Amino acid sequence: MRYFCNPLNLNYRYQFNADPRLHGKLQICREAADPSLIAFKGRYYIFASMNLGVWVSDDLASWEYHRLPEDLPLYDYAPDVRVLGEYVYFCASKREENCDRYRTKDILAGPYEKIEGDFPYWDPNLFCDDDGRVYFYWGCSNATPIYGVELDRNTFKPINEKVALIEGHPEEIGYERVGDDNSISPASEEEVEAKFNAFVKNQGIPESMLPPHIKPLIRGMFSNRPYIEGAWMDKHDGRYYLQYAAPGTQYNTYSDGVYVSSSPLGPFTLAEGNPYSYKSSGFITGAGHGSTMEDTSGRLWHTSTMRISVNHDFERRIGLWRAGYDKDGVLFCNQNYGDWPLDTEAKDVWENPKWMLLSYKKNCCASSSAEGHGAENAFDENIRSWWKPLSSDKAENLVLDLESVFTVNAVQINFADDSISIPCPGEIRGGSQARYIEERELETCWVLEASEDGEHWSVIGERKGGTNLPHETLFFEDGLKARYLRLSGLSVPYSQIPCISGLRVFGLGSGKKPPVASFTVNRISDLDMEVSVAEQENTTGFNVLFGESEDKLYNSVMLFDSKKRIGALIKGRKYYVRVDSFNENGITKGEVHGIF
Question: What's the pLDDT at 24?
């Protein structure tokens, strides 16, 4: 198989989150985040938070789940995995306790050798330089920076003092601002101090009694400052690329930036082309706290965390995209149409999608619909809304009318969870982020049919159990003719009423491509620009590309409306913008405008 469609179709495990603020009420959702992607002995491995195992692939398109040994810290966040020589090294995060490391020569069979840790950390990353020296990076806070230190290669203990490497600068770096669409500016020192004093007073705790390390954490609650987290280091052509995530996993603008240096411990400067990994629009948003890997053919890939954050802030998925270094050494990631089908064998990293979106806001109907969860929600290109029938009866069905016969090449079926309320099936573990991770292998079932006339139907795919894959994509490389699609036979874990957040159809029409987009762009602040696109016929939507030179439009925002504020700019840098239009028949490249 050579195609996949984000979010990756993995068996994300259910989390029973026991947030102490909810006074015993559980928040239940599926989660995977903070992926470490590595190549080892010719195969690919994704390690992600809170999934008790690892996903393995031979082609980066299809993945198989394997459980990891119980003695690994599988309930700790942000697993970091690196290849050093013949070993794979594994560790994860604890704020309050020393974090141990583990190493193995066989990821699936083990054994894993434990290496005692001697300090606590959060969001770790291990890096081995060309000369064999080993460095370590960590940090996850809106009050403290990302740190780095050199480690002894044999003992993995620090051999020098930690160095502060990256801090947040949301006043100057737009994509670091919190809030959806980077909409919230940091609070002033006076505002933070006032809220801090009020909080301490309400808690009845004298400030003098607070431990020194707690005060900045409390102030951070009121600062509107970004979390600077998720370090990942790579080296290319003698330069060090320290990647980091901001502003927070619950925002659509969760992204990865990158700093560069001639030394592994800096000083670092903000690179060109930032943010490096940025996906604030489309069916599923977010592209932060990830990792970058070179595959067996020498091509670069970036994987990171994507957001749902409806049932819980940490309701998240995994995305994967092509990446690379340009001729000037700028690290980039191609997230144009980044949740449409991707071809792992595409020759050009910037190659346009092979198939276009056919299902957006097309006519649809359903056997029944709960209030506020109509059939149209499955076709609005928003994973945070969904169709929900009135019952879990397998006769319930969802029907899409593409409005004419198309050649269909891919169909993605996305299941959603809607406020699950069941007893926890196991023992809650952990402290401030206590939870139980579902260990059983659950099942999801469905039947997908297609028709050209709405009367004669053929089954084109079905799942009768055996797996629990919430984002399954069917590929028909040679295409099949269809106007109507019908999804039925639905059954999901915990006897829920099944919900569909997206029945997404891709293919290629035979009509005309859309006109060239007519647009204006204005820089409305140091950190923001506003793009306005004139309405035009025969157009599904627009892709707004922007970057720091005309030939380096490395970031993009998908637009289905006529106006958008984009808040990911960097103070003092000039930008260029191009707007491409797309429909069911293809993409029409636009003209480049400069803003300064």
Answer: 67
Cis amide linkage into residue 7, ω under 30° from 0 = yes
Distances (CA, A) of 197 to 202, 210, 220, 284, 425: 9, 12, 13, 39, 42
Which pair of structure tokens corresponds to residue 507? 């293919």
Rounded distance between C-alpha atoms, residue 368 and residue 387, angstroms: 9
Task: Specify the length of the chain in residues.
Answer: 596
238 by Cβ neighbours in 10 Å (0-12 / 13-18 / 19+) ranks as exposed
Under a CB-based contact definition with an 8 Å cutoff, are residues 529 and 558 in contact? no
Looking at residue 252, its pLDDT comes to 98
CATH number at residue 108: 2.115.10.20
Alpha helix (H) residue ranges in 261-349: none
Q: How far apart are CA 129 and CA 264, in angstroms?
A: 8
Start-to-end CA span in the chain (Å): 45
DSSP run (H or E) holding 502 = strand 499-508
Is the N-terminal amide bond of 267 cis, ω within 30° of 0?
yes
Domain count, the chain: 4
> Which residue's structure tokens are 């990446």?
323
- Which residues have a Cβ under 8 Å from the Cβ of 349 and sit 6 or more positions away? 299, 322, 323, 324, 334
Report the pLDDT value the prediction gives residue 219, as an integer from 0 to 100: 81
Phi, psi (rounded to 5 degrees) for 174: -60, -40
Q: What is the pLDDT of residue 433?
A: 81
Q: Give the chain's largest Cα–Cα span.
A: 77
**Same-domain check for residues 213 and 233:** no
Single-letter amino acid, residue 16: F
